[in-house]
Structure formats: structure tokens, C-alpha cells
């Protein structure tokens, strides 16, 4: 947590006066404008290339490389966002935990929650076909003449993918908002991505039940493998192949 709230400068100035000065500061407005542009650039790339008409055009031009190109442009947009993001250091923070002992304990709590959230996000790799998500499996299957790997998945898996490719909404919201200090630029970032997540997914109870069942199945598979029960491991693999979930 490197965001540092600037000092008030004068005890006579109220919070309203500080905000009034900050919002009239050309440097603050310039930073916010650049940050908003980077966020819009990312969301336009992420949504426009996933829009069905554009997706069909890209598919007809790029073929099996379409998914890989989508992931590449997403990574490029994220790199631009991180490289050119402008922190706002000359404006008050929306909140900051500065009173003892919470100035020590609350950042530690936030760090722990963030660590757990990122661990859950990474555990999604146990459920989703990561090679297919990145577009690598499409190329591999094309070379072997096996067709589209997504068509080999179960109907429930295809339904989930149609609703949201990476369902990590709750964890990401915690990472965005559960902070000891919230600066103006971080607030803009959190608000924009929260709105984007709210508008960009259509997950329902059936999708959540499917995810829960798949996580439980994968954890059983890994625990069985660690225990050395190769027979059960083989049966689980056969069941997975029969259900075509992988």
C-alpha cells in the first residue's frame, strides 16, 4: 500500500475546501483524465473484441488464432494501463486509517484478505481450461485436426463460458475496495471496474452450483493424487473425460 495521503496543509481548511481546491487543480484533473482514458481503452478492447459481430469478423480473418489474439490485446491494454497510470498525490484521500493501533493492524488485515482473494482467483485455474482460455489449445487442436476444444465441453461448461469467462467478481471487488487508504485515482479505478463487472456478466445460481461442483471435484482429484491412490485417480480421470468437462 504505497498510496500516501497528503497532509492537510492548514488546519483551518475544511475537507470541503480541500476538495474544492483539488478539483480545480489542473494537475489533478489531467491525471484523472489520463486514468479514465486508460480504463476506457481497456474496457473497449475487452468488450468490443468479444462483441458477436466483431468476434465473427475476427474469427473469419484469424481463424484459430482469434482467441490468442484477444488475450494478447487484453494483455497489451493492461500493460498500457499499468505503465501510464497517473497517481493523484495532490488531492485528499477518501479515507485513510491513520489512528493507532489500526494503522498497523488494518493494513495487515487488508493484506491477508487480498492474499486470500488472489489465491481464490488463482484456484480458478483448477476449474477452467487455462490453455483453451489463452487460445493455445485451439491452435494445438487445429494442428491435430480435433476441431474446436470448446465444442467438446459439457453443455453446462459452455453455458458458463457464455455468461462469463472468468467468474471472480466477489474476490476482485474485495481487492478493489478493501483498502486502508483510498486515494482519488484508486477510487476512480475501483468504481469503473465495479461498474464494468456489474454490467459485463450474467452469472446465475446454476452457474455458481456448477462452479462449486467442479471445484469440489478438482480438489478431490488433487487430494487423491497426493495420497497415491492411482486407481481412484484413474477413475476420476475417466469420469472427467466422459463428462467432457476438460
TrEMBL record:
<feature type="transmembrane region" description="Helical">
    <location>
        <begin position="105"/>
        <end position="128"/>
    </location>
</feature>
<protein>
    <recommendedName>
        <fullName>Nurim</fullName>
    </recommendedName>
</protein>
<keyword id="KW-0472">Membrane</keyword>
<comment type="similarity">
    <text>Belongs to the nurim family.</text>
</comment>
<feature type="region of interest" description="Disordered">
    <location>
        <begin position="226"/>
        <end position="246"/>
    </location>
</feature>
<keyword id="KW-1133">Transmembrane helix</keyword>
<feature type="transmembrane region" description="Helical">
    <location>
        <begin position="64"/>
        <end position="85"/>
    </location>
</feature>
<keyword id="KW-0812">Transmembrane</keyword>
<dbReference type="GO" id="GO:0005637">
    <property type="term" value="C:nuclear inner membrane"/>
</dbReference>
<feature type="transmembrane region" description="Helical">
    <location>
        <begin position="27"/>
        <end position="52"/>
    </location>
</feature>
<dbReference type="InterPro" id="IPR033580">
    <property type="entry name" value="Nurim-like"/>
</dbReference>
Amino acid at each position: 500500500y504505497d498510496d500516501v495521503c497528503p497532509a492537510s496543509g492548514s488546519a483551518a481548511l475544511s475537507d470541503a475546501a480541500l476538495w474544492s481546491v483539488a478539483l480545480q487543480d489542473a494537475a489533478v484533473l489531467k491525471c484523472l483524465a489520463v486514468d479514465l482514458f486508460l480504463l476506457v481503452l481497456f474496457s473497449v478492447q475487452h468488450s468490443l473484441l468479444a462483441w458477436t459481430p466483431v468476434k465473427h469478423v475476427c474469427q473469419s480473418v484469424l481463424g484459430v488464432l482469434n482467441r490468442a489474439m484477444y488475450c494478447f490485446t487484453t494483455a497489451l491494454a493492461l500493460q498500457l494501463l499499468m505503465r501510464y497510470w497517473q497517481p493523484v498525490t495532490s488531492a485528499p484521500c477518501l479515507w485513510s486509517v491513520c489512528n493507532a493501533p489500526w494503522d498497523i493492524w488494518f493494513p495487515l488485515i487488508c493484506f491477508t484478505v487480498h492474499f486470500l482473494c488472489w489465491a481464490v482467483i488463482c484456484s480458478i485455474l483448477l476449474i477452467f481450461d487455462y490453455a483453451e482460455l489463452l487460445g493455445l489449445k485451439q491452435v494445438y487442436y487445429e494442428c491435430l485436426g480435433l476441431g474446436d476444444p470448446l465444442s467438446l465441453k459439457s453443455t453446462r461448461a459452455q453455458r458458463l463460458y457464455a455468461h462469463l469467462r472468468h467468474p471472480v467478481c466477489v474476490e476482485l471487488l474485495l481487492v478493489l475496495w478493501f483498502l486502508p487508504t483510498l486515494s482519488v485515482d484508486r477510487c476512480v479505478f475501483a468504481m469503473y471496474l465495479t461498474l464494468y463487472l456489474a454490467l459485463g456478466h450474467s452469472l446465475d445460481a446454476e452457474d455458481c452450483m456448477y462452479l462449486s461442483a467442479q471445484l469440489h471435484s478438482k480438489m478431490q482429484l488433487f487430494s487423491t493424487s497426493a495420497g497415491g491412490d492411482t486407481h481412484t485417480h484413474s477413475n476420476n480421470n475417466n469420469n472427467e473425460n466422459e463428462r467432457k468437462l476438460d
